[in-house]
Amino acid sequence: MTSLRDAAMTSKAWPFEEARKLLARFDKAPPAKGHVLFETGYGPSGLPHIGTFGEVARTTMIRRAFEVISDIPTRLVCFSDDLDGMRKVPDNVPDPAALRDHLQRPLTDVPDPFGTHDSFGAHNNAMLRRFLDTFGFQYEFISATDFYRTGQFDTVLRRAAERYDEIMAVMLKSLREERQQTYSCFLPIHPETGRVLYVPIKHVDAREGTVTFDDETGREWTLPVTGGHVKLQWKPDFGARWAALDVDFEMYGKDHSTNTPIYDRICEILGGRAPNHFTYELFLDEKGEKISKSKGNGLTIDEWLTYAASDSLSYFMYLKPKTAKRLWWDVIPKAVDEYHQQLRAYPGQTVEHQAANPVWHIHGGQVPESRMVVSFAMLLNLASVAGATDKAGLWGFIRRYAPEASPETHPDLDDAAEYAVRYFRDFVAPGRVYRLPDEREAAAMADLVERLRVWEGGLDAEALQTMVFAVGKDHGFEPLRAWFKALYEVLLGASEGPRFGGFIALYGIEESVALIERALAGELAQRD
After folding, report:
1. I want to staple 102 with a disulfide (CB 3.0 to 4.6 A). Which of 110, 165, 320, 390 is the partner?
2. pTM of the entire predicted model
3. Could you tell me how far CA 404 lies from the centroid of its own chain?
């Protein structure tokens, strides 16, 4: 019998493919530090968002995959760049005017506008940690402020002073000519104002480990590069962090891909080994445009979790990470139903197929049982025709269809019922457009009513689907897709819908007859 480790060594699932690449990194010798270090980065100028979730979730998937094929211990570090200067005052904080005097100061030196933490950076770091803890991620948190100011970065910073010219040669190639004139990889933090300064460096003393510069008033200063007196510009900081922590793996979005050679080379200049990378594609909005935090043209994590459980979001993040995907409201129902399809398939699969199943990677092999005896898409259609305003309105139908089900025994279905009512109310109901059937469609629907009146097959969804199929065929619908499309548009006010036999089984025979008769009488189309 094939073991999971054997299956993982040949699996085409992308986390196992990346894990095998990472394992090859240690062909000659295991890591001297005794573990493999995964890292994700976070810019605490704002709250964690759906991209933060995706980056940590995907990194965790690769980490779990690596732990299957290797016995080398692993760590996951989430690094917050909280020594970065506050470039602009956020709009979504209390009394933003009070922060204006703190522009360009490190985020951990800016007062917390919410009044709950020692600084704005500490507040946002706490939000990040609560965010990650909510989803059960296993990680260690590192603050850049602590890393710089407690001396953990000092060895690499001294080396950066010693190899300043090499670092600058790498950076200057990537800059426009006017930027080259003032650029330095070191950003001094003013001893009096506490601001992160973007000023030219007049002199770097490699032996003393100091930088000399003029501040905005023309006053000259000399500061040590150690102890948090300076910070590195963000591109050099990327590579320096890799060298200081001895990072083995980090993923980031495609927008960073052109900088990868810069990050790698600076890491090497500073005595490190560049980590393995994984570059993922960015998300798109409903128009196919790149999602931007400043535009607000994508879904937030809270918006997704208003309409579906987090496991469905993990499933969405698993799918084709190197392909740009629309991240919009209409992907949620599909992600929910596909996730549960994979859960139901998992117990009967071979080890090889389980290793390729997204739910293994979402749950680290501890795959739960799906109790979704009704699909999310079906719940949405049921909410539509039943006029349900809360999940209790759906449970009457669900219990008749699946007598063994209850909110207590089927908690995932209970949650989905509540999500479905919300989703229907906010996204489906406003867009419904009912129409009257044409002559042939009306005749076929009248025939369907008559067959349902004498139906003796119970609530067998497949048998009902076959019967509905036969009606369409008998009335000359070709292709038969046109028959089902007519049912959806006339009865549900949408161009797509569920397997109609399953819908009848869930909604009920008598209820379905009444629905069709209302449509034939023109009552549904009058809703418009």
Report:
1. 110
2. 0.91
3. 34
